[in-house]
Design brief:
Blueprint lengths: L11 H7 L4 H28 L2 H21 L3 H18 L2 H12 L6 H51 L6 H15 L5
Length: 191
C-alpha cells in the first residue's frame, strides 16, 4: 500500500510542463525510465536469488525515494532524467524479488498454496495506493505545491522502506545452492 501511495503519480507530467519541458523532452524522460527496467530485469533477478531478496526490496524502495528527492531539487531535464533512472532501477530491483520472497515466506510456513490469494491481496493494496494517489494528488498539489507533493512521495517511499526492513529473509534457492556447494566440497576427489 505505502509503496504505491505516491501522490506525485497523477501530476508529474504537469510538474514537468510547469518547469518548461517540451513534449519531446517529457517523452524522452518516460523512455529513459524504461532503459534500466529492461536492462536490469534479468541481472537483478539473478542477484536477488544469490544475495538477498529483502535487501533488493529495501534498496529498490530507497532508489524510488531518491527519484523524488532528485525531482524535488530539479529545475530542468537533467535531474528529472536522473530521477527516472533511479525509479527504473527501483522497478528492476523489486520486480520478482517481492514475489519470490512472498512465495518462500509462505513455503516456510507450509502455506505456499495461499500464494495466489496473498499475492492478489497485495496487488489490491497496491492498486488502492495508486487510486488514493490519483484522488489526492491534484488536491495536494493545490494545497502544498509540487515540492510538497514530491516531499510526501519521497516520505511514502521511505515509509515503504521501513516496512521492508522488517521482512524476514527467506531464500530457498540460495539455501539449496549453498547446500549443493557444501556437498560438492565434501565429496572426495575422483581420479
Amino acid at each position: 500500500l505505502f509503496k504505491d501511495t505516491i501522490p506525485i503519480y497523477p501530476v508529474y507530467l504537469l510538474l514537468f510542463e510547469s518547469k518548461g519541458l517540451s513534449l519531446g523532452q517529457i517523452s524522452l524522460l518516460l523512455a529513459i525510465w524504461s532503459v534500466p527496467v529492461v536492462l536490469l530485469e534479468l541481472p537483478t533477478g539473478i542477484l536477488a536469488d544469490h544475495w538477498s531478496r529483502k535487501n533488493m526490496i529495501v534498496t529498490g524502495s530507497i532508489c524510488k525515494a531518491a527519484c523524488y528527492v532528485f525531482w524535488f531539487f530539479s529545475e530542468g531535464f537533467l535531474l528529472y532524467a536522473v530521477g527516472f533512472i533511479f525509479w527504473g532501477i527501483s522497478e528492476a530491483l523489486c520486480s520478482g524479488s517481492e514475489e519470490a520472497l512472498l512465495y518462500d515466506s509462505l513455503k516456510q510456513r507450509r502455506e505456499e498454496h495461499c500464494f495466489d490469494k496473498v499475492y492478489g491481496t497485495g496487488n489490491f493494496c497496491s492498486g488502492l495506493g495508486v487510486a488514493l494517489s490519483c484522488l489526492a494528488g491534484g488536491a495536494l498539489t493545490e494545497a502544498i505545491t509540487f515540492r510538497g507533493v514530491l516531499a510526501a512521495s519521497a516520505f511514502m517511499a521511505l515509509l515503504s522502506t521501513i516496512f521492508a526492513l522488517k521482512f524476514q529473509e527467506v531464500n530457498y534457492y540460495r539455501a539449496s545452492m549453498e547446500s549443493k556447494e557444501k556437498e560438492d566440497r565434501q565429496k572426495p576427489l575422483e581420479t
